[in-house]
Amino acid sequence: MIKDIVRDEAVLSIKSEPATRADMQTVRDLLDTVEANSERCVGMAANMIGVHKTILVALIGDEYVAMINPVIVDRSKETYETEEGCLSLSGVRSVTRYKTIAVEYLDKKFKRRRGIFRDYEAEIIQHEIDHFSGIII
Q1: What is residue 91's predicted lDDT score, i.e. its pLDDT?
Q2: Is the dihedral of CA 131, 17, 46, 97 positive or negative?
Q3: What radius of gyration do the chain's Cα atoms show?
Q4: Which ranges of the chain would DSSP assign to H, the alpha helix?
Q5: Long-range pairs of 8-12 with CB within 8 A, sequence gap ≥ 24
Q6: Beta-strand runs (E) in the chain
Q7: Which CATH code for domain 9-132?
Q8: Residue-level pLDDT at 27
Q9: How many Å apart are CA 134 and CA 39, to the nearest integer?
Q10: What is the pLDDT along the chain (137 residues), one digit of tens a residue?
């Protein structure tokens, strides 16, 4: 189901809890919502639809991939400065991102995965993982 985007920074600053199989509807809602906003969105964390669980969706290649309980387990020493926007906020803000990250996560079938992501894909994932900690760019 397509959900409204949360814009209240007090709600967005609440830390997220690990997701379980009982949260699969949130995975479906995130995928529906990000696809409905695809002309202006490349990723979304669950708190952006009001659910404080560690679930994100990110545009990887040409499809949105759901990551449940993702953790960055390694990162490059190389970083870069960029500006990011967010559907939940107005304007853009400056951030520092790692060029390459390794992420362990569960896919939407709760199968354990590990991926290496670079450049823009890594940036999207880092942005959404920041949401889990209540970090607002």
Answers
A1: 85
A2: positive
A3: 14
A4: 9-12, 24-36, 119-132
A5: 9/89, 9/136, 11/47, 11/50, 12/47, 12/48, 12/88, 12/131, 12/134, 12/136
A6: 43-45, 55-60, 63-75, 79-85, 92-98, 100-106, 112-118
A7: 3.90.45.10
A8: 98
A9: 25
A10: 999 999 999 999 999 999 999 999 999 999 999 999 999 999 999 999 999 999 999 999 999 999 999 999 999 999 999 999 998 888 899 999 999 999 999 999 999 999 999 999 999 999 999 999 998 87
Question: What is the set of active-site residues?
Answer: 128
Residue 13, token pair as written in the block: 């600053």
Amino acid at position 42, single letter: V
Closest among 52, 57, 59 to 16, alpha carbons compared:
52
Give the position of tokens 């695809």. 38
Amino acid sitting at position 66: A
Contact predicate 3/33, CB 8 Å? yes
